[in-house]
Write a structure and sequence with these properties.
Elements: E1 2-3, H1 11-23, E2 27-32, H2 35-46, E3 53-56, E4 61-62, E5 68-72, H3 73-82, E6 90-95, H4 108-116, E7 122-127, H5 133-143, E8 151-152, E9 160-166, E10 170-172, H6 177-194, H7 212-220, E11 226-229, H8 233-242, H9 251-267, H10 278-283, E12 287-290, H11 296-307, E13 313-316, E14 330-333, E15 337-339, E16 344-346, H12 349-356, E17 368-373, H13 376-381, H14 384-389, H15 403-413, H16 418-423, H17 426-430, H18 436-459, H19 477-482, H20 489-497, H21 506-515
Parallel strand pairs: 1-7, 1-8, 2-5, 2-6, 3-5, 6-7, 9-17, 11-13, 11-14, 12-13, 14-17
Antiparallel strand pairs: 3-4, 9-10, 15-16
Helix pairs in contact: 3-4
Length: 516
């Protein structure tokens, strides 16, 4: 279990494990939380003549029988339940970005994989800096038979310089924040009072701060390439188009970019008409955008163009910060707030540090520059000291067995043994430190939640009640189908079994599944 800052080289540990397994004729599974990272790892290993590599991401499957198989963590979890024989000769499973166990929606997948992976598989887990690393290690030691070594490093190869920016005050350090906030907020109040919008009229509407002046400074100071993080796909594209007036490539770079685009279109067997599309047109200005909603081929083109150093300014969501080895000179945060699945809130320290860690290129930059754009509301409310210089938060368990996982467990071990799965969870382990009463309360709560889910599935007819005449794998047709669907599995199964999908045209089917 290796924890180190972004860009510190922890991937080397995983690569050593891969070559170790290859030497002994064994297989390795390399998992990543996002497809962009899976795609990049596939390209890296594909270019190595000593590595037989395959890829499974849901978008694409290439050589699934390969000795080194790269996949998303969800696909590995599914294989553990659906085709465990495929993992018989797997020596190592590498978890890149294993702190994703903390993800509110998807974190349970990592826990399930640790708990249910066949014995004999060894794990190499790579993590950003987290507060409760030793606790994580102790849990893994308890549920896995293999020895575990915990490695922690806080050393960043290229140090970071953190700056703040407002439209009025320009660039300043965290130490000047109280003075800047006091001055700008007072000016704001004075302005509103002059306009007759004083007390009793509610808080004024404040527009999001504009990035133009900040990006002008970055360009003038040649602090590029720059990654500009925004947490809305729509906003990422809007910002890219709003900056297309910038000409960031000199004549020689422009010619190199044109030649590169032609080469990429040819090697990927694309229509040359692609070259007039927005992704390619913006790139000829030195500008790109990247987010999970793009066509996979366009994401890959942006990644390939950025690797050459010819894309100088990329507007992107946080996906570009997860494991992808694409550092820049400067990182800019267009906002420090993002939607966390429930509400808009300020970034966790760990998330900020992961994205900020993309600033600073080893062997090129003495330090990486990280700039956070602040609006008036941020000056009032943002916990800037905590975000910029606080300790990374501990990883919390997000264990919640999905319906499809429950159905797999019923078929393998029967309903009566399912509570044993929760008893191995990180959730149960984390609650150990509380009082006996608190531990028992948490256990009862979790068991009750599991029982409610199981009662629901039984009531819908997804499995037969256990009895002397019924085996432990007594899933019905509905249950077997649902166990092979991950995400909204009950809704999809019911739509199918009630005949609703039977006569829908392709376009209508797309609409139904998009709505889900």
């Amino acid at each position: 279990l290796v924890s180190a800052p972004t860009g510190a080289g922890k991937t080397l540990v995983a690569e050593y494990a891969i070559y170790d397994a290859i030497q002994r004729g064994k297989r390795v599974v390399y998992t990543a939380p996002i497809k962009a990272l899976s795609n990049q790892k596939y390209r890296d290993f594909r270019d190595d003549p000593d590595v037989d590599v395959g890829l499974m991401t849901g978008d694409v499957t290439i050589r699934p029988e390969a000795q080194v198989l790269i996949m998303t963590t969800e696909i590995l979890r599914n294989q553990i339940f659906e085709s465990p024989a495929m993992l018989n000769d797997v020596d190592y499973v590498i978890f890149d970005e294993v702190h994703f166990m903390d993800d509110r929606e998807r974190g349970t997948v990592w826990e399930e994989t640790f708990i249910f992976a066949p014995r004999g598989i060894r794990f190499v887990s790579l993590s950003a800096t987290i507060h409760n690393l030793d606790q994580r290690g102790s849990w893994i030691r308890e549920i896995r038979e293999e020895d575990l070594t915990v490695v922690r490093s806080d050393k960043r190869p290229v140090p970071l310089k953190h700056r703040l920016f407002t439209e009025k005050s320009g660039l300043f350090d965290l130490g000047r924040l109280p003075a800047v906030a006091k001055h700008e907020l007072q000016n704001d109040r004075d302005k509103r009072n002059k306009k007759g919008r004083g007390r009793g009229r509610g808080r004024p509407f404040r527009q999001a701060p504009k990035l133009d002046r900040l990006l002008d400074e970055v360009q003038e100071n040649n602090a590029m390439p720059v990654l500009v993080f925004s947490f809305s796909r729509k906003d990422v594209e809007r910002l890219a188009y709003a900056n297309q007036h910038r000409e960031l490539l000199d004549d020689e770079e422009f010619e190199r970019m044109k030649a590169l685009q032609l080469e990429l279109v040819t090697s990927y067997d694309l229509d040359e008409a692609e070259l007039i599309g927005d992704v390619y047109r913006l790139a000829r200005h030195g500008i790109g955008y990247h987010h999970a909603g793009m066509l996979p081929i366009h994401k890959e083109m942006v990644e390939r163009m950025f690797c050459t150093g010819l894309l100088k300014m990329i507007f992107t969501t946080e996906t570009f910060a997860i494991g992808i080895n694409m550092p820049a000179r400067t990182v800019v945060f267009a906002s420090l707030k993002k939607y966390d699945g429930i509400s808009m809130d300020y970034l966790r320290t760990r998330d900020y540090l992961q994205m900020a860690g993309r600033a600073g290129r080893q062997g090129i930059d003495k330090e990486g520059l990280v700039i956070s754009m602040l609006g008036m509301k941020d000056l009032e409310e943002a916990p800037l000291k905590r975000i910029l210089s606080g300790n990374p938060e501990p990883v919390q368990s997000r264990f919640k067995l999905s319906y499809s996982t429950l159905l797999h467990l019923i078929s393998h071990m029967g309903r009566s043994h399912i509570h044993e799965a929760w008893d191995k969870s990180f959730n149960r382990y984390q609650h150990r430190e509380g009082s006996k009463k608190a531990r028992e309360h948490n256990r009862l709560k979790q068991h009750e939640l599991l029982d409610n889910h199981l009662d629901f599935l039984e009531e819908l007819g997804y499995f037969e009640p256990e009895g002397p005449e019924v085996g432990r794998g007594a899933l019905t047709g509905r249950g077997k189908l649902s166990s092979h669907i991950y995400g909204y599995e009950v809704q999809v199964t019911e739509l199918l079994y009630q005949g609703i999908l039977e006569d829908l045209a392709p376009k209508a089917l797309c609409m139904v599944f998009t709505a889900l």
